[in-house]
Design a protein that fits this description.
single chain; mainly alpha; 4 helices; disordered N terminus
Amino acid sequence: MLRSVGQKAVTGSDEDPRVAGLRSAVSRLRRELAAHPVEFSDRDIAEDELAALNAMAAGGTPEIPRLRRSLLLIAGAIGSVSALAPGLADVRTAVELFGEPPRR
């Protein structure tokens, strides 16, 4: 499908594009993690938090503090696995689109 510059795809939904981006980034990283052949000690943590992010995205607009907490746990769990760095960067970018958590 070809689109003109600046033209958006019509999906028929009013979904927040940040949520769609988060869901896409999480899905990609989940697939990459599942295909990664090497086991590492915190893999279960990364898988659990990616599942939590996926559930938050499926539920609509997620809570920013919870998004950031999950991102930190995922980064800590897979941060040293260089093959997963691009997917992790995409998830980070998607989380950052939601902005900073409110100050207390």
